[in-house]
Specification:
By secondary structure, the chain is an alpha/beta fold. The chain has helices spanning 14-20, 28-34, 51-62, 83-86, 107-123, 136-147, 152-155, 158-170, 183-191, 194-209, 256-265, 272-279, 292-300, 316-323, 327-337, 354-357, 362-368, 394-410, 416-450, and strands spanning 40-44, 94-98, 175-179, 217-222, 238-241, 282-284, 287-289, 342-346, 373-379, 385-390.
């Protein structure tokens, strides 16, 4: 009897994920990137949709190391694409930072954490201290970052200066990877240090990505695009990929085929219908996508359906939305709670502060954060979309029931009788969906038999 690999719950280390765990191959993201080679790419997706793992995959692929790291790709899809793509493997110095854990209540604590992250990343490149290509004043700056004595002003130049030193030492400009760049920005918005974090990030990223001759490629991930004028001012070479775009649509989250293959591997194909109703429903570009965090938790924990994704942290975005909701928005949220679709204008350049200026921006935030899915959509002349939006699946319906209903009760927007009625209607809907689960599973089993 074969030993089944475990699923990688919370594993964002590519080398470990692909060698020790069941790994869904997303390496063709590399090919899609190399076919166009934009100088700087920003990928925006909801949390827990594989952004950090994909960025670490890019780091391992591009990074020049003493050991041969091609062994981590020889059995992957990208390797089958030939020397045209293999030739990029292991050829670049790489600067890599993730801000996913920069979640603090004050600006002081936030900048201290960023200082520690820079200290750690500079520590990965201590060959610079022994390089004959680097001037003493540059090594003095490097030492300040390495020892954690750099000021806030010093740190704004950290990416720009490290990229210059690495380019000179290796004779090749580095790749810069910034994961979850907007996590501290979201914290700044909710904890009242938004202006400080925006000011810092504007200078920090400008040195790294704007007119930096010591940059081969840049990658960023986040939940929000963030309007270019607030952080990426003047960065005309930025290629932004969002949930609305067809490019890269299958690389963040699981496709239907990947889910079916996983269920077959673990011998639980009969759970397909239930899993689909709970965790499917997203539409990225034109691709049907499942929430990967929830799928791997569902399968690894005995196929017990529950809201795994919504329990991964506080839902600050949803809370912020509810705090500024007017009567029209409350009415639409009520419709969403009852399983209906609503028409909304989606602006991909939305910023956190715009909520207080225009509460209608909540639909844009809810969409990019994973709380809504799009149906029919129309691109408008101003670059925004007019979209039909709805709740994607049973998992997200659960958080709407628990958090939205509670908030609407708290502010007196609905009565307890109405809340109970919605909950009862929701339970009736759940019963109908369970019947559909069984029907979908029966059809899936019949298809397998016919194969």
């Amino acid at each position: 009897m074969r030993t089944l690999k475990s699923l990688p719950i919370g594993i964002s280390d590519y080398v470990r994920a692909q060698s020790e765990y069941y790994y869904v191959d997303k390496t063709m993201l590399i090919k899609e990137f190399l076919d166009k080679k934009p100088l700087v790419s920003l990928f925006t997706r909801p949390r827990r949709f594989g952004k950090t793992l994909n960025m670490d995959m890019l780091r391992v692929f591009f990074e020049k190391k003493a050991e041969d790291t091609s062994k981590f790709f020889t059995d992957k899809d990208i390797w089958k694409c030939g020397e045209e793509y293999r030739s990029y493997q292991g050829q670049y110095p790489v600067i890599s930072l993730t801000f996913k854990d920069v979640k603090f209540d004050t600006w002081s604590a936030t900048i201290d954490k960023i200082r520690a992250l820079l200290q750690e990343e500079y520590g990965r490149h201590q060959e610079i201290l022994y390089s004959e290509c680097i001037a003493k004043y540059e090594k003095d700056y490097f030492t300040k970052i390495l020892e954690g004595t750099a000021t806030e002003v010093d740190m704004t130049s950290a990416l720009e200066k490290l990229s210059a030193m690495l380019a000179r030492h290796y004779g090749k400009a580095p790749v810069i990877i910034i994961d979850e760049y907007d996590t501290p920005i979201q914290e700044g918005y909710s904890k009242d240090f938004y202006d400080e974090i925006i000011g810092f990030m504007r200078n920090f990223f400008s040195g790294a990505f704007k007119d930096n001759k010591n940059l081969s490629y840049g990658f960023l991930t986040g939940i929000l695009r963030i309007a270019q004028e607030s952080i990426f001012s003047g960065l005309n070479n930025l290629s932004v990929n969002t949930v609305m775009d067809e490019e890269y649509d299958k690389y963040f989250g699981f496709t239907d085929a990947e889910v079916r293959e996983m269920l077959g591997y673990y011998g639980v194909s009969e759970k397909y219908g239930e899993l689909k109703n709970w965790y499917d429903g997203y539409c990225f570009g034109n691709k049907e996508i499942y929430n990967p965090w929830s799928v791997i938790n569902y399968v690894s924990k005995g196929c017990v359906p529950q809201a795994y994704w919504v329990n991964t942290g506080k839902n600050e975005i949803l809370e912020g939305v509810l705090n500024v909701a007017d009567d029209d928005i409350i009415e639409r949220l009520y419709a969403l709670l009852q399983g209906e679709s609503v028409i909304a204008r989606i602006d991909q350049n939305v910023v956190y502060k715009s909520l207080s200026e225009d509460p209608a921006n909540i639909y844009s935030l809810l969409l990019v954060a994973g709380y809504l899915k799009t149906g029919k959509k129309e691109l408008l002349d101003d670059g925004t979309y007019l979209c039909e939006v709805s709740i994607p699946n049973k998992e997200i319906a659960a958080v709407y029931r628990s958090e939205v209903l509670f908030h609407l009760l708290q502010i007196g927007a609905i009565t307890r009788t109405t809340a109970n009625k919605i909950a009862e209607e929701s339970e009736n809907s759940n019963r109908q969906m369970r019947r559909k689960d069984r029907e979908i599973t029966d059809k899936a089993e019949m298809i397998e038999i016919l194969k």
